[in-house]
Structure to design on (575 residues):
């Protein structure tokens, strides 16, 4: 991808390149503002939701791309459209609820300007005045005052959108490797939404993305994962990235609980950790291969989790330099039988705001931000694990995916 | 005291014991307040009303509750905090087949390592309560249906 040109912050990246992350990226409000412009409103594809959440005409889901409020809405013709959720009149938010059905049109509650589900302005009360007085200016045209309509692509049930019409196609943006692992999970089968959870985490949004590109911590921090053999740095695994290095996927195969090999460096390992109710971790084979864990990240802000039988998207929504919202959408497939559904629900206890695995993550992100907030902006994170390159590996003792994220980041932001 | 008032008094006594046991760090007693099997669900109001089954915690047995306590005590990594439940009164919604259905409002506050207290959530307990012999009540089902769809933080302790 071509660089975005000089940045307006007048910042210089450390000379070691993406092996160093200067802390100003997590602290500086000017950097945050530039991210909104260059990344979230730039030539990127962003998560808006699952098609299965909006099955009927008029159904909508409200979310954010960066700081901008958007809705995904099902049109009368069955198509999914993504519109900016802001009235063309005076900027009011149109859809207030997180989800709902808008009936036959979108209507702003303030002055009742009405739009169709493709964002065209169709109705303006008192446009022609009353009793010959007032009304809109002579040259006012409905066609000039619609809702901003984003580029939208739906890939096997997942809705993506972009504010930038010059973005490549979604398939080109992802690249063939990422499409391959994405469609392993989203294989075209109808999806069933099991539930949505939202939490605020007090860390910069990028620290969340980095965490899912950091298998290093996964084999150390998560006592649950290590002790139950759900993830260990010594087990059969590999990772892939796309050409830009901004997207990544970690894939791994479960080893046996209690196995000690590869745990010598791990202080948080309990060989005798047993569940009293083992039904929490009695998974069925989910996919047509040996892989029991797949964590895919799509730049800038999507995580796709497929661990044992618990499947979810995690959407990262920035809220200032020091915080983000994490929105979990747990799903299964429409053809899941009752037994498979039960497994998904049991294993969901591994994930989410209280998750046996993911609670540790949220806490680690927060203490990272606290530490970084107290540091000089020119202090930097050191990412030397696995060397300093950004190449795919057949092991996971590497920080190459985190370095890769910053290759694309720097390119879009203009930090040479 | 009328029948319903006596029932309310007993359920409120159980509820007070329940929240104080968690708040005061007696986590090991928490599973003992449930009948077995049980259903424990911390669930967002939008999921609950739409019939979507995912919860922040979702447990089906007393053994699963004990596993949660073990994880909190020995496995999880989290910054230190305490929580404090403030209860509203209990409304007895129904009584059938020796099961009492009760709703109780609750606000839960969290105090962090720096000593700052913030509201974590408001919620309503929707409980099914059964007699467990010798004037003892236990929860057969406890649903913590929370309003705070955007949780301000992680959930470390049972609620």
């Amino acid at each position: 991808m071509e660089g975005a040109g000089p940045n307006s912050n007048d910042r210089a990246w450390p000379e070691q390149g993406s092996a160093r992350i200067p802390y100003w990226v997590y602290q500086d409000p000017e950097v945050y503002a530039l991210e909104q412009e260059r990344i979230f409103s730039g030539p990127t594809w962003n998560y808006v939701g699952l098609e299965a959440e909006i099955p009927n005409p008029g159904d909508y889901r409200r979310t954010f791309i960066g700081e901008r409020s958007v809705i995904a809405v099902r049109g009368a013709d069955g198509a999914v459209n993504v519109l900016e959720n802001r009235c063309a009149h005076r900027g009011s938010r149109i859809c207030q609820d997180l989800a709902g059905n808008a009936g036959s049109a979108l209507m702003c509650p303030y002055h009742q300007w009405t739009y169709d589900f493709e964002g065209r302005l169709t109705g303006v009360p008192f446009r022609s005045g009353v009793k010959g007085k007032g009304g809109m200016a002579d040259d006012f045209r409905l066609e000039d005052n619609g809702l901003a309509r984003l580029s939208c692509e739906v890939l096997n049930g997942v809705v993506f959108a972009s504010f930038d019409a010059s973005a490549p196609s979604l398939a080109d943006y992802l690249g063939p490797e990422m499409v391959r692992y994405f469609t392993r999970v989203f294989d075209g089968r109808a999806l069933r939404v099991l539930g949505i959870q939202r939490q605020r985490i007090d860390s910069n949004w990028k620290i969340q993305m980095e965490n899912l590109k950091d298998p290093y911590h996964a084999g150390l921090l998560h006592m649950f994962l290590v002790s139950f053999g759900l993830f260990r740095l010594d087990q059969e695994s590999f990772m892939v990235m796309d050409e830009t290095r901004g997207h990544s996927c970690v894939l791994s195969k479960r080893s046996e609980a209690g196995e000690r090999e590869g745990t010598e460096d791990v202080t948080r390992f309990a060989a005798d950790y047993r569940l009293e109710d083992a039904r929490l971790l009695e998974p069925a084979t989910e996919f047509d291969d040996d892989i029991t864990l797949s964590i895919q990240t799509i730049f800038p802000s999507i995580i796709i989790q497929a661990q044992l039988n618990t499947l979810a998207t995690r959407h990262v929504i920035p809220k200032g330099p020091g915080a983000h919202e994490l929105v979990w959408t747990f799903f299964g497939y429409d053809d899941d039988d009752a037994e498979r559904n039960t497994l998904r629900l049991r294993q969901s206890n591994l994930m989410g705001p209280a998750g046996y695995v993911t609670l540790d993550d949220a806490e680690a992100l927060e203490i990272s931000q606290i530490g970084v907030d107290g540091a000089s902006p020119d202090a930097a994170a050191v990412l030397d694990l696995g060397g300093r390159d950004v190449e795919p590996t057949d092991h996971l003792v590497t920080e190459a995916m985190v370095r890769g994220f910053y290759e694309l980041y720097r390119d879009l932001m203009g930090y040479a | 005291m009328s029948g319903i008032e006596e029932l309310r008094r007993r359920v409120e006594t159980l509820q007070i014991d329940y929240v104080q046991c968690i708040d005061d760090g007696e986590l090991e007693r928490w599973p003992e307040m449930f009948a077995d099997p049980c259903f424990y669900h911390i669930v967002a109001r939008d999921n609950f009303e739409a019939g979507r089954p995912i919860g922040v915690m979702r447990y089906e047995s007393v053994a699963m509750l004990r596993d949660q306590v073990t994880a909190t005590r020995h496995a999880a990594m989290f910054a230190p905090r305490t929580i404090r439940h403030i209860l509203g009164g209990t409304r007895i919604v129904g009584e059938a087949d020796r099961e009492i259905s009760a709703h109780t409002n609750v606000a839960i506050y969290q105090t962090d390592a720096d000593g700052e207290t913030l509201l974590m959530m408001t919620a309503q307990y929707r409980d099914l309560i059964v007699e467990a012999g010798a004037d003892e009540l236990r929860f057969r089902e406890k649903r913590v249906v929370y309003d705070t769809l955007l949780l301000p933080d992680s959930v470390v302790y049972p609620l």
